[in-house]
Amino acid sequence: MTDAVRQVRSSWIRTGIGLVLVVIGAIGFLAAQGKLAEARPGLVFTAVVVGGIGLIAAPWLTGLWKELQKERRERIRQEERAEMAAHVHDSVLHTLTLIQRSAQDPFEVTRLARSQERELRNWLYQPKADADATIAAAVRRAAAEIEDEHGIPIEIVCVGDCDLDDGLRAMLQAARQAMVNAAKYAEASVISVYVEVEAEEVTVFVRDRGKGFTMDDVPEDRMGIRQSIIGRMERHGGSARVKTEPGDGTEVMLTMKREKS
Asked: Where do the H-state alpha helices sit in the chain?
């Protein structure tokens, strides 16, 4: 229900309550003066006249209401068309111009096209969320930055959403590191990120179908997995699981309990 409809409905309700109070007050006054019986015929005929006026005016009032609603819907459509035209001019056409200038650089063309596709999809389908406030928006922003930096497509699926807390911020950093590792080392054509928000915990999966690796072969001085992902999650009360084999790609599963509000 829109604010305009609520306001009109509230106005009608207040008017109806006011009329009822006026009628009750008039009847009470006449009863107190002992003249209610004498005024009863007049009250009846007054009610009949008011009812007749209401029946006569009802079609006109209904038509006026429908006309107002029609004008309002048309105004909203015009505003939406103007907003879309402005967005297309500021974003899509600008990107097409950049693509034309970079036609000789396939990597840059792909990066621009992916960036514009992601921005347009978010603008059309995603709620306008503060990237510093919710886990879904923060993951999308991190993925967008990594995608722009490395040119690897990152597909995001988010089921549910919630505000960030300290644990989830640590989880976001671990997920970001997992995406960076996949973009830099997996040699995969695409990275998949799945976020699921439940009542008690949040789970993030970062998957790729790249070359994979063996955990025991990772040098001890490589801190990306051991400290930035596994260690960070454990320090903040969460858990991380890395599943990988040479030739089978890599899956990083992160789980973090939500703080009690």
From this structure: 3-32, 36-87, 93-101, 106-125, 135-150, 166-185, 223-225, 232-235
